[in-house]
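**Sequence, structure tokens**
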Amino acid sequence: MSGYDLVVFDLDGVVYLIDEPIAGAPEAIGRLRSSGTAVAYATNNASRRAPDVAAALTKMGVPAEPAEVLTSAGAAASLLAEKLPAGAPVLVVGADALRAEVRDAGLTPVETAEESPAAVVQGYGPDVGWRVLAEASLAVRAGALWVATNTDRTLPSPRGPLPGNGSLVAVLRTALDRDPDLVVGKPEPALFTTAASLAKAKRPLVVGDRLDTDIQGAVTAGMDSLLVLTGVSTPADLLAATPDRRPTFVAADLSGLFEPADDLRLPAKPAAGWTLTREGDSATLDGSGDPVAALRLLCVAAWDGESLHAGSDAARDLFRAWSL
């Protein structure tokens, strides 16, 4: 951490799962704060406002201020306020938090296409159903600007991935046969660049659990990133990652923030207990040891397009666990 002056955390799958803190996360963030490193939280989840997120984090043992939290709901409302005249009607698909952000931005939340909305803003909400999606479809067909807070296909949970806003956006995409006009949240870089600007940070680090949002957003923003394996993206996903979705570092969880950078960096240096033999277009993993160290080592070969093989019992166990 000595090389960074700000850490921007994703929340779902990094700090907590739904409303339960991930083991070790409060302690890791507390240690980071004690060292004097600034922190921020950037979430695509549009179902809570910044003060509510900060209060929930504090209750979990992660002290946070509303000013440290950036949400896709707030960013979407700000964007609409820049594009539309004051008081313009906006059809809101999502939770009450998104509706409140739209209202606070000086716009008028509406519920039906008959109210001639100038825009439709769509974010995650656990109670979003067919009726409001139908109204949104009619409004977009009539010419309303369609803005999505984010397009995460899933949300992490203790029971496994659940449908996210991207799945709900897909309903309208299918009905309308087109994409949203604008997507505000990650992988767009705005949440990260705003966090860095507010903190006056010159060397920020992004921490996330999703390659297609957190890590891609960091790459787009030109920031280093740490992928933790406590949420959505799996080892198999990392091995198949395209260059625009490859993190700077990978760790099992937030304890990686306090490990030597070179031990976590990708492509990896030789890992204790593991050997990787590369011949032609294939690579064989032998030995045993830390699973994440093996994963970092395998990235070297996988990203070069080589086929991966297990040469020891421990390696075969990992391959089975990772569905390779």
